[in-house]
Design goal:
The complex is a heterodimer.
Chain A: E1 8-21, E2 24-37, E3 41-45, H1 52-60, E4 67-77, E5 83-85, H2 91-97, E6 102-105, H3 119-130, H4 135-148, H5 154-157, H6 167-179, E7 185-189, H7 197-214, E8 217-222, H8 225-231, E9 234-239, E10 242-248, H9 249-254, H10 259-267, E11 321-324, E12 327-329
Parallel strand pairs in A: 3-8, 3-9, 6-7, 7-8
Antiparallel strand pairs in A: 1-2, 1-4, 4-5, 9-10, 10-12, 11-12
Chain B: H1 8-43, H2 48-53, H3 59-69, H4 75-87, H5 101-136, H6 141-155, H7 158-172, H8 188-193, H9 196-222, H10 225-232, H11 237-274, H12 280-290, H13 293-321, H14 323-326
Helix pairs in contact in B: 1-13, 5-6, 5-9, 5-11, 5-13, 6-9, 7-9, 9-11, 10-11, 11-12, 11-13, 12-13
Classes of the chains: A alpha/beta, B mainly alpha.
Chain lengths: 337, 327
């Protein structure tokens, strides 16, 4: 188990997370594997229902019932260099991991902070949960964290409540909270989705700068490939609970080896590209159809019903095939792409 | 959303304004209540003077009593006098008890006050933890049992539960006194021991409502994002529930505890009669039976004032719990 290469912080290996209700089983995460290297950012991309958030909640072991990890390993290299399998760690030990080793920020900055406590209290609580420091010391740390995420007038902001801050400020405060105990891995679950485009760019800048300064790894969950290009080193594309394509960010943007990824990229509106030579605006290019219900996946390739390249081969489900150096694709026809 | 927070001084000013508004509201409500109580007593069928003197009174007796009570004056003048006396703390004179209404009420206040206090404490101590656990283990055997028991408790009349408790715990086992308030000169401890059974019978019945509200309110907040954030910080589940979820669920619960407390004051009327407690409730019952209008009027006003006061206190508690009210 401890054969984790030294530069790997997190290895998710054949993770399977199911939601069981009666005799129906939703295989929300069905055999997902990827590595996160030290100091790097891995983006997990997919539509709602692809299993990307369930993957991140599985790593934190914050699944709500009836969600359950039914198989696979989540190997994590802790600060003391021990390699732990988070999938099997007892809940009590897991509490020492959350916040201290792996921290998380969420999509909704408006609701992710507790409205009844000041920003300072919420950051200080995190510090005092994991480190034996006095209140005064915790407050100094909280102030330093607010300064780190570039919140002006940090001293005063400590005593403010979340409702007194804007969405962008709250997401900064949330990042300050998450990083308060200097975690090695930050899981960011759609952290910019609810924000204005300009604020989005600021938050991405901030995360990049913090990563360079602190050297943490980031697991970035998003549905937005534009954001991926900004921040990620490696990309994992998920569809219906499975990884369909995995590559470095450059390889992926150069040459998509799965029709789903190609479709996702075509979905991004582009003001210059989407204009006909006459200057007339062209229609958006959505992927036809929608994500199949995880309870009723088609036999064979689960993307086949929406795919324009479909052949008889697609009635059986491919495994992840090598489509190039460090480039994997779950498509029989990746060579034609 | 304000780009800058209000400086401390300004927020205190806003807090002051909130308190002041609530106080004004409280006075307005009391004014309306006083007026309604006045009108109700005046439009009740029958001439109070005739009713008081009984069927054998002569017309002259009735007329002189009417003059003495001021009932021959125009209604608006009567209202003015009533209001003026009220402002001086004068609720009038009881017809049968030979003393001012306020004195009569004050003599009876202690058992009612402690009965209400104990009932609400018992209700809260049962209902709030059970409600939290019910929501946390939603759909479990515990939840189903608690919800069913709550429904049962809500459908039991408190006087019936009182009679059962007396029968078993007081008469058969002799653990608690059967009835009364210990008689003249009884020690505080003896007096309070007489309140245990009535407080249980009132408290159990009102716990049902508080339990349902606590459960529903907890279910609302348990799925909130900040609860997930709290978990992601690595704290114990108990701390997540109590510090982060329950405090947010508390606001509706406070409201219903307040309403329940107010209802208990009037609910005490029946329970005091069952347990033979010399409280405000039993005073009102005997006043109604004897048509002692000033006492009925005074008691109505006091109960209404308690209602308004409790509501005011709840508003002040919001201020403590929820910073969004303060700013």
């Amino acid at each position: 188990m401890s054969e984790l290469p030294a530069d790997i912080v997190l290895r998710v290996d054949d993770l399977r997370t199911h939601f069981e209700a009666g005799d129906r089983v939703a295989k929300s995460v069905d055999g997902v594997s990827f590595d996160v290297r030290r100091g790097e950012t891995v983006a997990v991309v997919g539509e709602s229902g692809s299993g990307k958030s369930v993957t991140s909640l599985s790593i934190m072991r914050l699944l709500s019932a009836p969600g359950r990890i039914v198989g696979g390993d989540i190997l994590y290299r802790a600060s003391d260099d021990r390699v732990l399998d988070l999938a099997k760690l007892p809940e009590k030990a897991m509490r020492g991991i959350r916040g201290r080793e792996i921290a998380m920020i969420f999509q909704e900055p408006m609701t992710s902070l507790n409205p009844l406590y000041t920003i300072g209290d919420q950051i200080m609580e995190m510090v005092q949960l994991h480190e034996p420091v006095s209140r005064a010391e915790a407050r100094r740390r909280a102030k330093r964290m607010l300064e780190l995420v570039e919140i002006p007038a940090a001293d005063r902001r400590l005593d403010e409540y979340p409702h007194q801050m804007s969405g962008g400020m709250r997401q900064r405060a949330m990042i300050a909270l998450a990083l308060a105990c200097n975690p090695k891995l930050l899981i960011a679950d759609e952290p910019t989705t609810a924000l204005d485009v300009t604020i989005q760019a600021q938050i991405l800048d901030l995360l990049r700068r913090l990563q360079a300064e602190i050297g943490m790894s980031i697991l970035f969950i998003t549905h937005n490939l534009g954001v991926v290009a900004e921040i990620a080193h490696d990309v994992v594309v998920m569809y219906a609970g499975r990884v369909v394509e995995k590559a470095s960010v450059d390889a992926l943007f150069d040459n998509q080896k799965h029709p789903y990824t190609r479709g996702l990229l075509a979905c991004i509106p582009n003001a210059t590209r989407d204009r006909a030579p006459t200057g007339e605006r062209m229609r958006l290019n959505p992927i036809p159809g929608s994500v199949p219900s995880i309870l009723a996946l088609p036999a064979g390739c689960s993307f086949a019903p929406r795919c324009s390249l479909v052949t008889s081969e697609c009635e059986s489900n491919p495994s992840l095939l090598v489509a190039g150096p460090d480039h994997l694709s779950r498509c029989w026809r990746h060579e034609t792409l | 959303m304000a780009p800058f927070a209000a400086p401390q001084g300004l927020s205190q000013k806003r807090m002051g304004r909130y308190v002041f508004q609530r106080l004004l509201g409280m006075l307005a409500v009391m004014f309306v209540v006083v007026t309604i109580v006045f009108i109700i007593v005046r439009i009740a069928p029958g001439d109070p003077a005739a009713v008081m003197l009984g069927p054998d009174a002569t017309a002259q007796d009735v007329a002189s009593l009417r003059t003495r009570l001021g009932l021959d004056r125009p209604i608006i003048i009567q209202y003015g006098i009533f209001f003026g006396q009220l402002l001086q703390g004068d609720l009038g004179e009881s017809i049968f008890l030979n003393r001012p209404v306020l004195t009569a009420l004050a003599e009876r206040a202690e058992p009612t006050f402690f009965l209400t206090l104990f009932s609400i404490l018992i209700a809260g101590i049962i209902a709030i933890p059970v409600g939290i656990m019910s929501a946390y283990w939603r759909g479990s055997l515990f939840d189903q049992g608690a919800t069913t028991l709550a429904m049962l408790a809500a459908s039991i009349p408190s006087f019936w539960l009182g009679l059962i408790l007396i029968q078993i715990l007081a008469v058969r086992w002799g653990v608690f006194p059967v009835s009364g308030y210990g008689g003249p000169g009884a020690s505080l401890l003896t007096r309070l021991s007489h309140l245990i059974l009535p407080a249980i019978s009132l408290g159990v019945v009102s716990s049902a409502l508080i339990l349902r509200f606590t459960r529903a309110s907890m279910l609302d907040v348990l799925n909130d994002d900040y609860v997930r954030t709290a978990r992601s910080k690595g704290m114990s589940e108990f701390r997540v529930i109590m510090k982060h979820a329950f405090k947010n669920a508390l606001i509706p619960v406070l409201t219903v505890v307040g309403i329940t407390a107010a209802l208990l004051v009037s609910g005490a009327v029946v329970t005091e009669t069952v347990f033979g407690l010399p409280g405000v409730g039993s005073l009102v019952v005997s006043a109604v039976l004897r048509r002692d209008y000033p006492v009925i009027q005074g008691a109505l006003l006091i109960i209404a004032a308690l209602y308004v006061l409790i509501n005011f206190l709840i508003d002040m508690l919001y201020l403590l719990v929820d910073p969004r009210v303060r700013y």
